[in-house]
């Protein structure tokens, strides 16, 4: 078994049941960590046998882990510190007993250390059991007064960096005749633009064709419309990301979803990608007709497209 140090970033997330471990794991996953919850402790070192991992790793650990003991967790932390050349963090989520009791009362779940007793008994046992771990933790966050949103913001301060995944944006064109796609956050209507459908040579082409794009460029309203959309999104996206949003879906529609909406969606997606956002683009009507493959094209840095 290899024990050579590597630079894989690892966060061990633990604390009393009900303190917010599941929320923390989800937040770290949104930040680009590979998240694994309740894996047996003895299996964790095997994750590093093949060398450095491709992504930072977030491991959720509590008393429900099959082979959990205090000594095993503390030993595991030391082992991971060695394996990652000091890049392993033990995150302890603390919480007051009365708040834990209220949370258990609200969910009506049994405490893992008091299946046959009241939650108070299990909470007291777990707090006492985990006390030495809290003393060894690298980061301690008291979640007693934190909402899930507050906890997310706190974790972003500790773990978000230049390598973390940014908010992702999905841009899709669609046909108003078939209705607005389910789940979109924002919709823009471009049916006011000149319609290539009424030009016989363009009718069977799509917004991906240069002739259609050239036709629409002759409409003096096109570029200001695209500029206003991108200007608004340039303002909104950082605010949404700061608020903790991880995904935004934008729909751009025209009558048939074939010409105008495709052109506008392509241009908006390219502008956002050139601004550094992670953008995927899809054309709902063109995919339905088989004109383009199902699935989205990902717009990467400087607006390059990758399948």
Q: How is the secondary structure organized here?
A:
Layout: E1 10-14, H1 21-30, E2 34-37, E3 57-60, H2 70-83, E4 88-94, H3 97-107, H4 119-136, E5 139-142, H5 148-159, E6 168-175, E7 186-189, H6 210-217, H7 222-243, E8 247-254, H8 260-274, E9 278-283, H9 284-289, E10 297-299, E11 305-306
Parallel strand pairs: 1-3, 1-4, 2-3, 4-5, 6-8, 6-9, 7-8
Antiparallel strand pairs: 9-10, 10-11
What does this protein look like?
- It contains nine helices and eleven strands.
- It is of the alpha/beta class.
- The protein folds into two domains: 10-159, 3-Layer(aba) Sandwich (Rossmann fold), CATH 3.40.50.300; 168-306, no CATH class.
- A hairpin with a 5-residue loop joins strand 10 and strand 11 (305-306).
- Helix 1 (21-30) crosses helix 5 (148-159).
Task: Please give a quick description of this structure.
The chain has 307 residues and is an alpha/beta fold.
CATH topology (fold) name of the largest domain? Rossmann fold
Major sheet attributes: 6 strands, mixed
Instruction: Return the string of H and E elements.
Output: EHEEHEHHEHEEHHEHEHEE
Task: Characterize the overall form.
Answer: elongated
Question: Hey, roughly how much beta strand do the residues contain?
Answer: 15-25%
Number of helices: 9
Mean pLDDT: 84
Strand order of the largest sheet: 7-8-6-9-10-11
- Whole-number tally of structural domains: 2
Q: Termini distance?
A: 37 Å
Flag low-confidence runs.
1-5
Which CATH class of the largest domain?
Alpha Beta
Total number of beta strands = 11
CATH architecture of the largest domain: 3-Layer(aba) Sandwich
């Amino acid at each position: 078994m290899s024990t050579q140090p590597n630079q894989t970033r690892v966060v061990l997330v633990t604390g009393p049941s009900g303190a917010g471990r599941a929320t923390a794991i989800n937040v770290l996953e949104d930040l680009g960590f590979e998240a694994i919850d309740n894996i047996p402790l003895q299996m964790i070192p095997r994750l590093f046998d093949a060398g450095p991992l491709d992504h930072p790793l977030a491991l959720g650990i509590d008393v429900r882990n099959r082979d959990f003991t205090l000594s095993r967790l503390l030993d595991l932390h030391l082992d991971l510190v060695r394996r990652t050349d000091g890049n392993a963090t033990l995150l302890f989520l603390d919480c007051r007993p009365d708040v834990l009791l209220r949370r258990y009362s609200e969910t009506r779940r049994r405490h893992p250390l008091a299946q046959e007793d009241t939650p108070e008994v299990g909470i007291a046992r777990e707090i006492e059991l985990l006390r030495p771990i809290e003393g060894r933790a690298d980061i301690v966050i008291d979640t007693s007064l934190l909402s899930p949103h507050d906890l997310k913001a706190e974790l972003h301060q500790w773990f978000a960096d230049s390598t973390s995944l940014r908010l992702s944006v999905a841009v899709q064109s669609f046909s108003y005749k078939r209705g607005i796609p389910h789940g979109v956050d924002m919709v823009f209507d471009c049916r006011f633009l000149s319609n290539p459908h009424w030009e016989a040579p363009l009718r069977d082409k799509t917004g991906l064709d240069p002739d259609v794009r050239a036709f629409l460029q002759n409409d003096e309203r096109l570029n200001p419309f695209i500029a206003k959309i991108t200007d608004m999104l340039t303002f909104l996206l950082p605010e949404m990301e700061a608020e903790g949003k991880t995904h935004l879906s934008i729909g751009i529609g025209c009558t048939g979803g074939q010409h105008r909406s495709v052109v506008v969606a392509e241009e908006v997606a390219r502008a956002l990608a050139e601004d550094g956002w992670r953008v995927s683009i899809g054309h709902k009507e063109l995919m339905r007709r088989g004109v383009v493959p199902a699935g989205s094209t990902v717009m990467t840095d400087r607006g390059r497209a990758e399948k």
